[in-house]
Structures are given as C-alpha cells and as structure tokens.
Design goal:
mainly alpha
Length: 181
C-alpha cells in the first residue's frame, strides 16, 4: 500500500469518523427521548459508549496518521490501551446486572480489535513504516467503523435479524400446533 493511498484513506476515514460521531450524538438523543419511561441499563450505556469509543479510535488514528505518517505507533498504542481499559470497565459494569450474551460477544470483538491494534502499534514503534503493520492498522480502522455502526444500531433499538432467529422461527412454524386436535 503506497503512502499516497494511505494518506487518502486516512483523510477519508477521518471525515467518515467525524460524521458518524455526529450521527451517534443524534441517535443517543433520540434514544434517550424514546426511553424516558424506562431506566437506562448498563448494557444500553455500554452500547453507546462502545460506539463512541470505536468511532473516536478510528478518528484519532486517522488524524494522527495524517500528521505522523510512519511514526503512528505511539498514538495508536495509546488509543488501543484506552480501548482495552474501556472494555475492562464495561465488563465490570455488566457484571452488576443481568446482561445478554450479545453484549458480551460484542465486547469480545472489541477486545480482539483493540488487542490486534495494540500489537500492530507496538510493532510499528519498533519498526516504523512496516507495511504489513500499517495495513493492519488501516484495516482495523474499518473494523472499528463496523463495530461502531453495529453498536449504534442496537443503541437506537433497531431490529436485529440473525440466522439463529430466522431458523428458530422456521422450525417453530413447521412444527404442528399442540392445540390442534
């Protein structure tokens, strides 16, 4: 991947991250207005914070990449470490209340992304400009966008469609009703 294409990628990523953060604030506001009657759970707060953390990570890495270029290792290490601390705090928060497996799985994906980012950034500190680590950091920016979008989707209470749900419904419909003679 050439330096020019990375610069173009990070310029576009910084713009996208800024727009997504703005939309997230709108989504949080709308979600809060809709849920004034029900108390906000830790899982709901974590979904919003996870989206913001993901988008902020992508924004920070992108902006520092535009400034630092191949010397991106140190700022990327800092945001990866902050991300791992966020996950730890989220796990501790979720332990206090009943939570869905889905929230735990999302935190696992976030942990994997931050861990990969930390490893790549430490490698970049040791070997500035290493192309494979630079490429991994860029791919992780995309991963953080996807994670943030998924968490935002759940935050606003949008419907989720999973293969497990669909198969379960299909099986239930195909089974004869117990009420039928």
């Amino acid at each position: 991947m050439s330096t020019h294409s990375l610069t173009s990628f990070y310029a576009a990523a910084a713009s996208v991250a800024g727009a997504l953060i703005g939309l997230l604030f709108v989504a949080v506001t709308v979600a809060q207005e809709r849920s004034t009657a029900t108390p906000v759970t830790a899982a709901h707060q974590i979904r919003g914070a996870a989206a913001l953390t993901s988008f902020t990570n992508a924004l920070t890495v992108s902006l520092f990449e535009l400034i630092e270029g191949p010397q991106i290792g140190t700022p990327t290490t800092a945001v990866a470490a902050c991300g791992l601390l966020f996950v730890l705090a989220s796990i501790l928060s979720l332990r206090r209340e009943q939570h869905a497996l889905r929230d735990t799985l999302h935190l696992a994906w976030l942990t994997a992304a931050f861990a990969a980012q930390l490893i790549a950034s430490l490698n970049l500190q040791a070997h500035p400009g290493h192309p494979e680590d630079q490429r991994l950091v860029a791919i992780l920016v995309i991963a953080f966008f996807l994670i943030g979008i998924a968490r935002s989707w759940e935050l606003v209470g949008a419907p989720t469609i999973t293969i497990t749900q669909q198969l379960t419904q299909l099986i239930r419909r195909s089974q004869p009703s117990q009420d039928a003679p």
